[in-house]
Amino acid sequence: MSNHVSISPAEAADRLAIRELVEAYAHCADRRDAKGQMSLFTDDTHFVVYMNAKDPIPSQELHSREALAPVFADLNKYAATMHFVGQSTILTLTGDRGTGEAYCLAHHLTVDGEKRQLMIAALRYYDTFVKVDSAWLFAERLLYVDWIEERALS
Predict the structure, then answer these.
(1) pLDDT of 21-33, one tens digit each?
(2) How does strand 135-153 pair with strand 80-94?
(3) Which of 141, 145, 146 is closest to 61 using CA atoms?
(4) pTM for the structure as a whole
């Protein structure tokens, strides 16, 4: 944990902007705003998914903003999603670069006639942020799935 006896207004603004970036990602996902979600990443972003957080081999690895489109569009198969962002910790912050970790519980609702199914994924993101033209973006996002729970809903 950092000791923030005194930080500059610029650092405080950067920390707030990074937190808002993390929250915007979840908001865009839940609103099915794939273009908005993609705009949160650098053109040459690196996005890596580990469906099993204990497996060092990624399930998926993407190397550009455009490559994210089908990943975000895949959320359309759900009737609804709700991503609850938990703690979001900035690990390093120097000038126009930073790193952080964010926790998220991602709820995915599937409806098939009268059958409703809920899948909850416990996620951790390890992020690298860069400041481009006064805006913070994801330069790299590593997504780790710690566990998944599936249940029928009434």
Answers:
(1) 999 999 999 999 9
(2) unpaired
(3) 141
(4) 0.94
